[in-house]
Amino acid sequence: MDDTTLAAGVEATGVEGAEASGAAGGPNRVGDGMPGPDSAATDGHVSARIQPTTLLPGHLRQLESEAIFVLREVAAQFERPYLLFSGGKDSIVCAHLARKAFAPGRIPFPLLHIDTGHNFPETLAFRDQLVKKLDVRLLVRSVQDSIDAGRVQEEPDGDPSRNRLQTVTLLDALTELRVDAAVGGARRDEEKARAKERFFSHRDAFGQWNPKNQRPELWNLFNGRKHNDEHFRVFPISNWTELDIWQYIAEQEIGLPSLYFAHEREVVSRDGILLAIGAFVKPRPGETVSHERVRFRTIGDMTCTGAFRSSASDLGEIIEEVATARITERGDRADDRRSEAAMEDRKRQGYF
Description:
The chain has helices at about 5-10, 15-20, 60-75, 90-100, 120-135, 145-150, 165-175, 240-250, 315-325, 340-350, and strands spanning about 40, 45, 80-85, 110-115, 140, 180-185, 200-205, 230-235, 265-270, 275, 290-295, 310. The protein is of the alpha/beta class. The protein folds into 2 domains: about 5-245, HUPs (Rossmann fold); about 260-340, no CATH class. The strands form 3 sheets. The protein has a 6-stranded mixed β-sheet with strand order 5-4-3-6-8-7, sandwiched between helices. Strands 10-9-11-12 form a 4-stranded antiparallel β-sheet, with no helix packed on it. Strands 1-2 form a two-stranded antiparallel ribbon.
């Protein structure tokens, strides 16, 4: 199946499901994924009308300008860039910034989603809806296909996480598509390994990362030179914090999956993490399923992404909650608890 077939297939599916699973309305509630006042929907597409940057508070205006500059550098320096898109808030913000960076034109590079097969249904529905509204190509590569091809092996656990397995799928996709720059929404404040990344983060011929072999980026000069079999990971929102992300989402009225807002859900407590009961997470013997009001601060594989108890149902309440949080947003990710250097180990192997 070629890129065109994949893109057309994605754009033709998922919209009805997205509308059916949209979040309930409420003050500042943007879970339905519809464009805010910075964009106007016409014939299913998002227009180029952009909210003026001058309306943003000073620090957000500076961060936005920096990210837009990085995205334009990507378009200028690389031949086959892709935007890695997971359906989480950071990749959604990156897509929004890319739209702003190249308005009134379309985003000049496709979106690439590495699908673990264990995603929240709400995330996939939102992804398909947003892709249609932005009028961009979306390519999907599946971890299940890597398993079926014998490239990776499923973990023997009853509720296996595929977070580690997606590294192989990602590297295979970058090779297949001849990607020279993979843009993503990682931020330095998320985790200590990600704090070591540059804006333009070099990867060797095996897709691996060496934190000691990164290019200097003095005076915002980004060196994208590489050998043919190498590539770069690019992080335009590196300097943003979680609070910056939420404030920017509120200012720009950016749509989000309903998972980010407080809702009722069946969960089970496992190793100190509240996991959502669903198709990929079942209660084990001796575990008690409870009905809790929760939300998610980060969205990933259902089998490793923890919820936390919250009553924050609109953006103002979320911003207040994040501003006073004592635990990082990845504090409820089971995959990060496997070792103190879990993230850095995965990144050295090619994880994003």
